[in-house]
């Protein structure tokens, strides 16, 4: 219970400090509802906090997080699909104008692609990680079998973001709005060792530093 008690104490601090200082803005979100302009798809890694690394306030980001910041391709025949539901809601109901797929360095999901995982203990995880298979294969092909592990992981992290963008574009609602210029897709890589964010430039085929 010690960890939960700390969280409850944190909530009390939040109420007395942040909530009190920003009560008007927060209550406005209650009365008018949310109207975020950006869908942020990120990793569930506890070191990557979307609102913290982008310095955004409540109501500005619609956030979807999962293991590896993966995007499953459009498959309407599947029974349950939380990521698909979130994407459809953000794009169709909330009418977001930007989608950011943000990966990060030293990602455990990417590292797990190169490990043998027990199917019995991680049955759902193994299937989910298959969404990173293309990135792993291309990175291994590009660098070769004798590549340094760290270089292999860093390249796989980058390539995975690109492949997740491709998966995102399989959604009809996304494709339609992108074609009309109503929606823009971005690939970001967050460096947890420095706090820096680089974006994918399709013309340069590389991740570049954000312009200041």
Q: Can you walk me through this structure?
A:
With 212 residues, the protein is α/β, with parallel strands linked by helices. The protein is 46% helix and 17% strand. The chain contains 9 helices and 6 strands; from the N terminus they run ααβαβαβαααααβββ. The protein has a 6-stranded mixed sheet with strand order 2-1-3-4-5-6, covered by helices on one side. Strand 4 and strand 5 form a beta hairpin. The termini are far apart. The model has no long low-confidence stretch (mean pLDDT 95).
Topology, pairings included?
Layout: H1 2-21, H2 23-32, E1 38-43, H3 50-54, E2 61-66, H4 82-93, E3 98-104, H5 108-112, H6 123-129, H7 133-143, H8 149-168, H9 172-179, E4 184-190, E5 197-201, E6 206-209
Parallel strand pairs: 1-2, 1-3, 3-4
Antiparallel strand pairs: 4-5, 5-6
Helix pairs in contact: 7-8
If you compute it from the alpha carbons, what radius of gyration comes out, rounded to the nearest whole angstrom? Answer: 19 Å
Main sheet attributes: strand count, strand direction, barrel closure = 6 strands, mixed
Number of strands: 6
Low-confidence stretches at least 5 residues in length (pLDDT < 50)?
A: none
Number of helices: 9
How many angstroms separate the termini?
45 Å
What's the arrangement of strands in the largest beta sheet?
Answer: 2-1-3-4-5-6
Mean pLDDT comes to 95
């Amino acid at each position: 219970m010690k960890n939960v008690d700390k969280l409850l104490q944190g909530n009390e601090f939040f109420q007395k400090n942040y909530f009190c200082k920003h009560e008007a803005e927060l209550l406005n979100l209650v009365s008018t509802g949310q109207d975020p302009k950006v869908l942020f798809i990120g990793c569930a890694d506890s070191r990557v906090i979307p609102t913290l690394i982008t310095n955004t306030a409540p109501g500005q980001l619609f956030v979807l997080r999962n293991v590896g910041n993966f995007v499953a391709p459009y498959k309407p025949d599947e029974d349950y699909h939380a990521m698909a539901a979130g994407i459809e809601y953000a794009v169709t109901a909330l009418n977001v104008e930007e989608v950011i797929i943000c990966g990060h360095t030293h990602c455990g999901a990417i590292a797990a692609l190169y490990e043998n995982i027990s199917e019995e203990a991680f049955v759902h995880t193994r299937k989910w990680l298959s969404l990173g298979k293309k990135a792993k294969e291309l990175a291994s092909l590009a660098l070769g079998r004798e590549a340094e592990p760290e270089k292999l992981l860093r390249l796989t992290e980058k390539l995975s973001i690109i492949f997740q963008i491709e998966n995102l574009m399989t959604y009809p609602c996304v494709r339609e709005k992108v074609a009309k210029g109503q929606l823009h897709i971005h690939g970001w890589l967050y460096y947890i060792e420095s706090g820096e964010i680089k974006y994918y430039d399709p013309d340069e085929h590389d991740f570049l530093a954000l312009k200041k």
